[in-house]
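Q: I'm writing up a methods section and want to include an example of the input and output format. Could you take the sequence below and give the corresponding predicted structure tokens, formatted cleanly so I can copy it straight into the document?
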Amino acid sequence: MKVTAFAKAGLCAGLAALALGSIVAPASADPATGSFGTLAGLGSDTTQSVVGGLATAIGGGVIASYDATGSASVTTRTGGTAVPRANNSGGGRDLLRVAIGQTETANIPVFNSAAVPVTTSAIAGQVQFARSSGGPGAADVAQDGVLTYVPFALDAVSYATAPNSVIPANLSKAQITSIFKGELTKVVVNGDSTTLQGPSYVAATGDVVTDITTFIPAAGSGTRSFWLGKVGVTESDISAGTYANLKDKDFTGTAVQEHQGGALVSGTAAQDAGAIAPFSIAQWVAQANGETTDLRDSVRINAVDGNVATTGSGTSYALNPGFNAYTRPVYNIVPSVLADDPTSEIAKTFVGTGSRVCQQSATITAFGFGLLGDGCGDDSLRAYKASASETGLTLGASSVAAGKSVTATVTTSSYGQGGGTVRIYTGSTLLASGAVAAGSSTGTVQVPTKTAGSLPLSAVFLPNLAGVGASTSPVVDLTVTAPVTPTPTPTATTKPVVAVASTTKATVSAKPVVGRSFTVTATVSASKTHAGSVAFYDGSKKLGTIKVASAKAKLTWKATKTLYAVKAVFTSSSPSTVKSSTSSVVTVRVAKATPSVSVVAPKSVAKGKYATLKVKVSATGVTATGKVTVKDGKKSVKTVTLRNGKATVKLPKLKAGKHKLVVTYSGSSTVAGKSSAAKTVTQKR
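A: Here is the clean output for your methods example:
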């Protein structure tokens, strides 16, 4: 990805800010009630104002950007399903991943509230892009990723302090790192001298000592991830309690919202004087200049290594071109398949230096961001591989006369069952195509034949959802016989014996469940006495062969998945008397297994110790896979992955007192989700 040097970008920003004789439209928050945009997006608090400003500048209802705070949910389409108001970059990204089927479920963070679970089947098509103040994690980057991170501006981050702060207004990067790692914990003022000291410092005569409180935004915030990376702290460090000084709740216990000053002034005067938090310079500038709602609470944005964060005053602030301590590109995340389509609204709006967004340089700089030059709209950074789909193919007959068509039934399985196109091939030759409707798992296609011989057929499924990968069925062989010639008229002295037709019907025992056996019964009917055997198939996979007895054949097997396409093929023992026949395909939907969730938990935990839960998820005939989440009341405490249906969960340190813990199993493709009975654990003081 091409990104210009920040000094150059900052210079562009400064010049643009000075030249703003033309009026830049202020940022819109959510679209007006009852109005909807072509491209709806949620996510980063850092970029919500500038993207709102871009929506106004571009106009035409192209972009509908929803703020990170406000109502708990938003509706982005006429008659659409409400989606959670994603509170940060990670939440917006995951909402988009679920909406395009890249992952089937996610818990979306909502400001000052419990995370809200969403599924692809519920929110497909409700979100088209996501705002992000950071790029993807290294483990998620993939050249063939279904999400493209498109940069559009350059942000800088510094540290903010309260109006009455005693923390110096100019710190070195080394000092900032030491503060956020808890190595410098006190501000000591003695006369005209101000020093930073560690936790072991003993006050001297005349010292006025103020404790430093280090705030960071809530988990999932792009700014939180960026800042922690710059000061050398990981989320694993925080989970392990290595840096207990880092707080994502303010002095009143309210979640810290990025780029708002409230946390820094939420305590007593003495507490506020030692409070510090990362703050986007672009957000500070935009709020100061009235481009968006001013939520700074008069907090100051400070210098690093002698470089001030801003220039100007009053309502004419700008990003300082010389500030280069902590800089980052900011992104809009879009589906890759649409980024690659120059005719799509996504590509026209976000991709390339000539895109609608990249042409709005005055708006970008008015909101305190720097310009990326040729890097704006770059589409090379991709992440998150497509989710897998499955495709099966069954034919209405195993043989057909040349010139006739055969009915092909295509069965698909994918996250959200969003439908798509199905194509029938023999080798690389396309014979026919059709569709699977959204919400359905099957589609039928009439496949023509021309000449006699063996015709190997396969079905290719091309999903509608941008996050789901294509798939190809196993090959099914069709026998194409020579065209039927008229039967000669028998002479008066000849009375030929004509084989009668048979019919085969397949039925399934009621309510099959994964892990339990179910039975398919084939009933063979004919006007003459008949004998033979029935072969049972799931798609092209042969399940077994049973002899016909009293016109019936039954096959029983254990269900291991939730969808089968069953047919029964009757082979007559005397084809000259009774013809063979094949049943129609029966789609069998199998219920997920119902699990039980058992939890072994200590009744009490000694002071300074951590509670450990032993969790077992059991289901008849199937091993539970997936994840379990421990909740303390409404709060999610920890999520772990099952191993052979079991998990040992070491909880973070609990507050002293009683905790009512519930373990929730999120389910899998074969086992339904379920929650355990509550366990009361007492954390000793």
